[in-house]
Amino acid sequence: ANGYWKDMKSLIHGHPVTYSVIFKRIVPTSTGAVLYRLSGKNLQLTLLELALLWGISTWMVSVEVRKSIGRTAAAVVVLLGWGYFNTYPFAGTLLSENLAYILGAGGAAVLLFAMRKRSPWAMGLGVLLVTHAINSRTGAVFVIPAVIVWAALNLEKKYRIKFVLGVVALIILLNLYVD
């Protein structure tokens, strides 16, 4: 956590980064720097912003799960999010796990919405959020192809090839930017 904190402050002040960007991706550090800057360089407000984003993303995914699957599944999603936040030792820190959860839950909510509405734009946004979540905490990189295939199969036939090519091109561009 100390490495993320130092690099986040270095990014804000225009100094070179040292620890976390060398061993991990820059996504969580740069996102933390943006949140830190938005809070007026107040760490406590930054942590509050993260907690609010955590709650909003859990609420978003629970609403979409309720609409898609049912109330019981939505209650399970809320309990899992709450339990993870309250029992996970690094919750309320600037570590990449928090950003990955926020983006992953938000991406799942958008994907469920897109599946219900058959919206190619929402499907692309959901895949982008899930991909960004995986870029912030690269534990499950093989999820990306599965999400792309799942999203393409849930679209109308006329959108499938355009969607897959567009998402792959976007992922390549983002990875060139991020790495």
Number of extended strands: 0
Sequence stretches where pLDDT stays below 50 over 5 or more residues: none
- Average pLDDT, to the nearest integer? 77
Give the fraction of residues assigned to helices: over 70%
Cα radius of gyration in angstroms: 17 Å
- What oligomeric state best describes the polypeptide chains here? single chain
Q: SSE order, as H and E?
A: HHHHHHHHH
Percent strand equals: under 5%
Rounded to the nearest angstrom, the distance between the terminal CA atoms is 21 Å
Instruction: Label the structural class.
Output: mainly alpha
Q: Helix tally?
A: 9
**Largest beta-sheet details:** none
Assign an overall shape: flat
Provide a descriptive summary of the structure in words:
- The chain has 179 residues and is mainly α.
- Helix 3 packs across helix 4 (43-68), helix 4 (43-68) packs parallel to helix 6 and helix 7 packs parallel to helix 9 (157-178).
- It is built from 9 helices and no strands.
- The mean pLDDT is 77.
- The longest helix has 26 residues, at 43-68.
- The two termini are 21 Å apart.
SSE layout:
Elements: H1 2-13, H2 20-23, H3 27-38, H4 43-68, H5 71-87, H6 96-117, H7 120-136, H8 143-153, H9 157-178
Entry keywords:
single chain, 179 residues, mainly alpha, flat
Summarize, please.
By secondary structure, this protein is an all-alpha fold. It is built from nine helices and no strands.
